[in-house]
What does this fold into?
Amino acid sequence: NLLPFLEPLLRKSSEGRRNYSVVSSLRQSENLQ
It folds into this structure.
């Protein structure tokens, strides 16, 4: 059963995606200034 192994990976990937969007938005705001 791979679910117990895949669930934390999916959670980490979603957190990484959120962090990446935050970093990209910060970079865009820096470019605007």
Observations:
- The mean pLDDT is 86.
- The first helix runs from residue 3 to 32.
